[in-house]
What we know:
This protein is α+β, with helices and mostly antiparallel strands. It has one domain (6-40). 19% of the residues lie in helices and 26% in strands. The protein has one helix and two strands; from the N terminus they run αββ. It has a two-stranded antiparallel ribbon with strand order 1-2. The longest helix is centred in the N-terminal third of the chain and has 8 residues, at 6-13. The two termini are 20 Å apart.
Amino acid sequence: MSEISFEQMLEEEGSLNQIRTGAVVTGTVIGVKDNEINLNIG
C-alpha cells in the first residue's frame, strides 16, 4: 500500500470544503469521546 499525503487524498477524493455547517449527511458513527464524535461519511 502506498502512502499519500492528506492533501493528495483530498485532491483525489474530493474536498472537505463541500460539507458546510448545517448540512445533512448520512454516515456511520465510528467513535465517541467526551467532547468529540467521529463519523465515517464516505
